[in-house]
Amino acid sequence: MRLKIFHKLFLVLVGTSVCSLLLFASFAHWYAQRSFLRYLNDEREARLSALSEQLLVIHGRDGDWRSLRDDGRAWRRLLREAMRPTVLDDERPAPPPPLHMHDGAHGGRGPRNLFGGPHIDATLYDTDFRIIVGATPYRNDLRLHPISEDGRTLAYVGMPPLRNPADARDVRFARRLGRMVLGGALVAMVLSLLVAAWLARRQSRPIIELGAGARALASGHFETRLAAHSNDEIGTLVDDFNVLARTLEDNESARRRWFADVSHELRTPLTIMRGELEAASDGIRPINAALVESLSQETARLAHLVDDLYQLARADIGALDYEFSRASLGALLTECVSHFAHRWQQSGIQYAHDIDADLCAHVDSRRILQLLENLFENSSRYTDAPGRIEITARRVNGEAELIIADSGPGVVADELPLLFEPLHRAERSRSRTHGGSGLGLAICKRIVTAHGGRIEAKAASLGGLAIHIHLPLVQ
Fold this sequence. Notes:
The structure is a single chain. With about 475 residues, the protein is α+β, with helices and mostly antiparallel strands. The chain has three domains: about 5-175, no CATH class; about 235-315, CATH 1.10.287.130; about 325-470, Heat Shock Protein 90 (2-Layer Sandwich), CATH 3.30.565.10. About 55% of the residues lie in helices and about 15% in strands. The chain has a five-stranded mixed β-sheet with strand order 6-8-9-11-10. Strand 3 (about 145-150) and strand 4 form a beta hairpin. Helix 5 packs parallel to helix 6 (about 235-280) and helix 8 runs parallel beside helix 9. The longest helix has about 60 residues, at about 5-60. The protein is rod-shaped, with a radius of gyration of 52 Å.
């Protein structure tokens, strides 16, 4: 049987709580019993002090211990008098019972005293620790109280320490104390079970929700979002899940838009070609050089679109071929400018360039020329005459910065980040009028990225669009 995460968390929490409670209850029980025995022994020792004062009076009266040694009943009577419970003793709450009881010859029903039960175990010793009266031989663990007069020790009275409560009420008190500790441990254990169940459910719920959300994403429901219930690592994981879902949703929208745009771009030249051919077939339009030229242009546009799609697809999967070598960016830029110079002059577009000839980088010259030609072609198509194009190449912070700016018309600020998306056009009708597949800037971005650079679109000071390219230089 496979345990769920709820059961694992519950077992871990319960196991930890139970072990901790058992250790604490054992220690508390042991410490309570020891403290109670210490209290009983201290009370017995206080009674020894009272007994020693009475013995001192007897010794002062008789001059020796003969009256006690020769009369055992007098010794026992003295013990009963010295150990008689006070009012405070009788008012003391009846102690709970500990572990076991010493039942003496009287079966636990003898007169109560503070020496631990029905028998009296106090013994009087001389200064050499020989027994004067009593029954307990001297040993090292005895609790002794000296009987002194004028700084001279006359004798010792002592008794062995209690190892366990012997009086019935003390036994009951000790047992009641043990039950109280055990009951508290059981209550705490039940509470720990409830808290463990609550914590396990609280911690496992977001993980269960994450699993359900992942299955929803796998089924194509990319609009799925989860609510973060905490600010810890699980909350961060939920936030990451939402970012993933949002990204997948955006990608799915882009994919659908991509298919719609591609089908639209392919359908436009095909529709024109079919219309031309149907018109010629029906005799509406004569088959002449103008028809052939129109079909040739649409075929070229279709071929250019398919080629751009192929280039973009290869760039996305990293299949574009690159042959990197040391090259002068200034020379490549100057070469490309010279190719477009005559076209710009014929179109009534002025141009100016400020190119640093010492810019050298590790690039694929063929791909860089493709990049520059795409950008120059883009500026040529969308710059109205009389217009102006400015080309700048300079070194900035160890990088080559290439700027191609035109006089416009410009692009609204919200559209600038979207210009490098495939088939995106700020103004679709105008773009189609000027030609182009809408894939040029997307291909440019792939080429720049493959060279370890970055490209961005900004508003130009001339009023149009400025493309900024940053490429690493060779030191």
